Amino acid sequence: KQWYQRRVRGSPCLRVKQRSKHESVGYSQVRCECYGGGIWATWFDRDLKLAGKVMVRGEGGSISARLAHIDQPLLHIPTLAIHLDRTVNEAFKFNKEEH
Which pTM does this prediction carry? Predict the structure, then answer.
């Protein structure tokens, strides 16, 4: 038998969209998309960090790929307060395009 090891690239994560900067009601927002098969309800109401591959423009205009890891919480995905959604305990549903 031969065993093959490979890196799993389908890990659940939130990917920042290319044109992600958005502002609404005085808050800066980062648009992202769900990637992989995650249990998305567990991502709400917790601080999130940023990590991954970024494209950087260097001197002279050249673009190169770099790995980035910001080791402090920058993002937070809040849920709606219970007094604004009394049915939240019946079934937790969210719109992947709007959150």
Answer: 0.58
